[in-house]
Each structure stands twice: as structure tokens, then as C-alpha cells.
Specification:
By secondary structure, the protein is an alpha+beta fold. 42% of the residues lie in helices and 14% in strands. It contains 5 helices and 6 strands, in the order αααααββββββ. The strands form 2 sheets. Strands 1-4-5-6 form a 4-stranded antiparallel β-sheet, with helices on both faces. It has a two-stranded antiparallel sheet with strand order 2-3. The two termini are 16 Å apart. The N terminus is likely disordered.
């Protein structure tokens, strides 16, 4: 674990910045750090991943996160608009930070494989000509590897959308 955190420690030591509270990346001090170290957001994510949490903290996370995901996921689903993954993930991340829960947002592509394999996999990735900057977004809040409020609300051309859960909450996602 030490090699993963060496960059965080080095930046923190060099800049006198501490990754000490969830959401510290929203401070003016972090924004100044980010201007000097463009990799600072990735270092924040590494910091979140590398922390050794006390059992009481993990129990609290396991109690609060599913309730929050269920509630917010229902609200997003009731809205019904596709393509809200970034907005929903930002909102979830901020709510988790207010609750003192370490997390970070991920932007990237994803592949949906269906079992049984009677529907071809769906792939969400960025084309160079797409007007959007992010094909999909979700939140990581250890021990949860994936918290996705909007996967079902993407634009699916067929009936497979009904087979996707309304919210995804996983502690064992493949990296």
C-alpha cells in the first residue's frame, strides 16, 4: 500500500496540505494545490482507497449508504430523464461527504453483460465526436466499489433496460 500513497504524502508534505476530511478537495487550499499538481484529484482517490477504517466507521457506512442510495435512486428514477449520471453522482458524493463518509467520483466507460447471454453486451464509452465529456459516472465509497444511481436510465435501444437494477451497490466489483 505504501507505493500507492507515496505521491499523496509527497504532495501533502511539499504543499503542507492534509487530506484529512472527506471532501477536502472542495477547499480553496486544494484548488490551489490542484493548480500546481494536476494529479491531485487522483491522489485524493488513492487516499480514500488506502485508508484503514475502524470497524465502527465501516458499520456506519454499511448502514447509511444503502438507505441513502435507495432514497436518492428512487428520486432520480422518478425524475425519469436519461443521462443524469454526473449530476446524480456529484449529489451523492456531496451528501456522503456531509455525513463524513470518504468517497470519490469516477468517470469512465462501462460494459453491461447479460446473463443468460441472450442480449448482446452494452458498452458505454467516449467517442471522439460525442458532445459529452463523460460517458458514465458513479461513486466509490469504500467498502463499496461501485455506487451507481443511473445505470438503468441510460439510453438502451431494446428491452434489456428492464433487466438492469434501478441502483447498483457493490462491494465486489471487478477492477
Amino acid at each position: 500500500m505504501a507505493p500507492r500513497m507515496s505521491g499523496t504524502r509527497q504532495v501533502a508534505t511539499d504543499e503542507h496540505f492534509r487530506f484529512d476530511v472527506p471532501g477536502c478537495y472542495r477547499t480553496q487550499a486544494f484548488q490551489a494545490l490542484l493548480a500546481r499538481h494536476p494529479e491531485a484529484l487522483q491522489l485524493y482517490a488513492r487516499h480514500v482507497e488506502a485508508q484503514a477504517h475502524m470497524p465502527a466507521y465501516l458499520q456506519r457506512v454499511r448502514q447509511l449508504v444503502p438507505r441513502l442510495v435507495r432514497w436518492l435512486g428512487e428520486e432520480v428514477a422518478a425524475d425519469g430523464r436519461p443521462g443524469l449520471c454526473v449530476q446524480a453522482s456529484v449529489l451523492l458524493s456531496r451528501l456522503l461527504e456531509e455525513l463524513g463518509i470518504w468517497n470519490y467520483m469516477v468517470a469512465g466507460g462501462c460494459v453491461l453483460s447479460f446473463v443468460p447471454a441472450d442480449v448482446r453486451p452494452r458498452v458505454f464509452y467516449l467517442f471522439d465526436l460525442q458532445p459529452v465529456e463523460v460517458p458514465h459516472a458513479w461513486v466509490v465509497a469504500p467498502p463499496y466499489d461501485v455506487i451507481d444511481l443511473t445505470l438503468r436510465q441510460q439510453r438502451y435501444p431494446g428491452p434489456e433496460g428492464r433487466r438492469i437494477p434501478t441502483q447498483v451497490l457493490s462491494c465486489r466489483a471487478r477492477r
